[in-house]
Design brief:
Layout: E1 28-32, H1 35-38, H2 49-54, H3 72-85, E2 90-94, H4 97-101, H5 106-117, E3 121-127, H6 133-137, H7 144-161, E4 167-172, H8 174-182, H9 194-214, E5 220-225, E6 230-232, H10 237-260, H11 265-270, H12 284-288, E7 294-298, E8 303-307, E9 333-336, H13 352-364, E10 369-375, H14 386-404, E11 409-415, E12 434-436, E13 443-445, H15 447-458
Helix pairs in contact: 3-5, 7-9, 8-9, 9-10, 13-14
């Protein structure tokens, strides 16, 4: 911690939107981050698959790494002070598995105490993509043993934090871990095996079930999925079937066992040319279906698909250019870029997809609380960011509409508090409501931070 503050206050005030949308009392207003993206202090933890991936030429923009990131491991008290200044009620952060293996769990122990001292509710995510390299060397998520190692790690973290932390998410976006990591290779560990990606998806599901069963009864346990709002390009039978196929791979491969205790039959049929799914053992699906206290929904943009019988359709699926597809056995599906505004990620802006997903899960799992565990947008580094405010306003209006229509949404975690390491994009994309100067680590709240602070304090938009 430096003697002088490393953040400044931007007095810019965003224009308040006309009309008032009031959210329920007790609604959680938070932000979210991930360990590898912000912590730095790489020498104080073991290596992860992302350390290895960053050092593989051509995998990460500019050869950027997470060695320093935004130095949160050093500046954590200041960052919590910023959250308190903004009036945030909750903070969703991830624990670094490699840091815990290196004996560094004390960092999170102090972090939790500091959050609570400011009246900020901690929400722990046990896994946000940073698998210890030693486990990848032993086979990674395609191997069953990784799920059991994860359960042991979950118990270790819970032994230290569960007396003060109520909210837990086991995994963040297991779709990305499985399919970007093991099928398309655009994320760590950079493997390109469709069969391994399906094995990884199952063992991630199993890891969730094992960890959820291991967490103490006093905790509230969920998982943060990145479900896709999949839409057919036209109403033709072929396009509808393409949407069904992608829905199985994007959504029901996780919600099937998580919510219903079984993988969907059409998924097994669609992928039968790749695997017989014999890696799913008797009892696995029941074990995965642990009681959930909430379901986390991460949402940024919808997907528009059509049939492409020749396999040569457009591939703008929003997950980065790759010579290998993240969609096993779906070569006859094309992805289309919807018209209209886009964020700096090239993602189309359509808040109706968030509404649709919240209502879908309300119907599919009546009574299960929902949390928007990630939502936000990357834009230029400017301190005045009206585009981000407009994006957030539209998506929060969609959340409010879902609440009015009966969706039991308990909170919203904006992605992200700070500009940070954006995976294969390195430091070239900025999602933070707080600007970070990567040379000096000075933090400066953007207009969107002040806008969100007013919203969080008032509970109305």
């Amino acid at each position: 911690m430096t003697d002088t503050p490393t953040h400044t206050t931007d007095p810019t005030q965003a224009t308040d939107p006309g009309g008032e949308l009031r959210f329920p009392d007790g609604f959680l207003w938070g932000t979210a981050t991930a360990a590898f993206q912000i912590e730095g202090a790489a020498a104080l933890r073991g290596p992860s698959i992302w350390d290895t991936f960053c050092r593989t030429p051509g995998k990460v923009y500019g050869g950027h790494t997470g060695d320093v990131a935004v130095d949160h491991h050093r500046l954590w008290r200041e960052d919590i002070g910023l959250m308190a200044e903004l009036g945030l009620g909750s903070y969703r952060f991830s624990v670094s598995w490699p840091r815990v293996l290196a004996g560094g769990i004390g960092f999170y122990d102090k972090l939790v105490d500091e959050l609570l001292s400011h009246g900020i509710q901690p929400c722990v995510t046990l896994y946000h993509w940073d698998l210890p390299q030693e486990l990848e060397d032993a086979g990674g998520w395609p191997e069953r043993e990784t799920a059991y190692a994860f359960a042991q790690y979950a118990e270790q973290v819970a032994d230290v934090l569960a007396d003060r932390v109520e909210l837990w998410t086991t995994l963040n976006e297991p779709w990305c871990s499985a399919f970007l990591g093991y099928a398309s290779g655009v994320h760590a560990p950079g493997r390109t095996s469709p069969v391994d990606s399906l094995r990884a998806a199952h063992h991630l599901n199993l890891a969730h079930g094992l960890a959820a069963a291991a967490l103490p009864a006093r905790t509230r346990v969920g998982i943060a999925l990145n479900p896709s709002a999949v839409r057919p390009l036209t109403g033709s039978a072929a396009d509808l079937d393409a949407a069904r196929r992608i829905d199985a791979l994007a959504n029901r491969i996780f919600t099937g066992p998580l919510l219903h205790g079984a993988y969907p039959p059409d998924l097994l049929t669609d992928t039968a040319s790749l695997t017989d799914w014999s890696f799913v053992r008797t009892g696995d699906e029941a074990l995965i279906r642990q009681p959930l206290d909430f379901l986390g929904v991460n949402y940024y943009t919808p997907a528009v698909v059509s049939a492409a019988p020749d396999g040569n359709g457009p591939r703008a699926d929003g997950h980065g250019a790759a010579s290998h597809s993240p969609w096993p056995a779906a070569d006859t599906v094309a992805f289309h870029q919807p018209p209209g505004e886009q964020t700096d990620m090239g993602w189309s802006i359509d808040a109706s997809g968030l509404y649709d997903l919240l209502m879908r899960f309300t119907r599919e799992a009546p009574g299960l609380q929902l949390m928007v565990t990630e939502n936000g947008a990357a834009y230029a580094p400017d301190l005045d960011d009206p585009q981000r405010i407009a994006y957030l306003e539209a998506h929060l209006a969609a959340v409010h509409r879902a609440l009015a229509d009966g969706a039991p949404v308990g909170g919203y975690f904006l992605w992200s508090l700070l500009d940070n390491f954006e995976w294969s994009y390195g430091y070239s994309k900025r999602f933070g409501i707080v600007h970070v100067d990567y040379d000096t680590q000075v933090r400066t709240p953007r207009s969107s931070a002040h806008w969100y602070a007013r919203l969080a304090r008032k509970g109305a938009m």
